[in-house]
Amino acid sequence: MKDNTKNKTGKFNIKLNYWTGLIIYAVVLLIIGICVYIYTGSCVKKYENSQSDKVMDGFLKDFEKMVDDKTLADNIELPASSEFEGKDTFVNMYMSEFDGVSGYTYKKSEGSYNTEEPQYDIYADDKLAARMTLEAKNQHVVLGILTVFDWKIKSIEPAFSAKTTDYTVLIPQDYTVTVNGIKVSDNYKTGKMVENPDFVNVSKYVDMPKSVEYKLTGFVNKPEIKIYSAAGSEVAVNVDSKGNITAGAGWDSSDMPSDRKEEALNMAKIWDNFLTNDLSGAGHGLATVQQYLIEDSYYWNLAKDYSVSPDITFISDHVLSGNPYTGVVVDNYIEYNDNCYSCHIAFTKNMTLTSGGARKDVIDSTFYFVKYQGNWAIADMIATTK
Questions:
Q1: Does the pLDDT value for residue 142 go beyond 50?
Q2: What is the DSSP annotation of 237-284?
Q3: Angle 52-68/4-49 helices, nearest 10 degrees?
Q4: Is the pTM of this model over 0.85?
């Protein structure tokens, strides 16, 4: 008789082993699935967290910290300040814009399409304060399809503008300029050289100093601009409505030798006497006045034409008063070189008309004298304007 108990036990064991293996296999699959799920979730989360929009929260905090500890200026590029105002001029202006700010926000900049260098606009309250550019680094792929980046701040561009003013300065070649007490170097010269309009007639006979142009740019505040002559004396300047400066060409005013002062005044009186028909001789004293003029010059020909014109005959008959010259002034003597000088001459000539009454003739001009054929002669006369 067969023992069936043994067969049944074997079959049971086989079934038990089958289910045990199946369970173990299922558990292994479950563990693998869980691991895959955890890994996938981790990768997806890592991918999501690596997006630039996510990291900007942290970078915004970095920006706030830089504002608070005053290091933001070290991490941005601002316009170069004028060396005459101090290098921190724009820095201080920009940083002052964060005073009293209650909060900061950001949003992606319009037109920011570079995924590896995205740009974000940072706002201090509601005012645009800066544009931050990020830079991707340590690029790698997860799950075979997702690109993950680490990020760093590539640059911070300040949203900043300041109204600045530029100035031009036109001064004689040998003069110097200072701005806020700092001497202006030749680097600011434009290369433009201009002849002083006062020297148009004089420069026909002697070399006169030209003026050079300086360009001073980027001033936030109105600067203190001073001009000094070749001898180091501060000189008066003309300032136009825009603040541009022009200094009259010439040398320092100095003491005028007494004999030269007397000679210059005498020439001015003879010229005036010619105009008022107070000289004797042919042509109403033409030869007398022409000895102090340059042959064929503007004034030489003017005198020549005037001596034969009806105008000189219209001068009312008169005699010079007992004290004909009053208010005589000879000053602002400037010696340009050995062959040219100028001075301001002013006086009033008092005349008594033979028909009765009085007449005054006023001279108030800057006279330019040049050495001509060994003698001093009048080269130009520029009336004083008030």
A1: no
A2: -EE-TT--EE---S--B-PPPHHHHHHHHHHHHHHHHHHTT---SHHH
A3: 50
A4: no
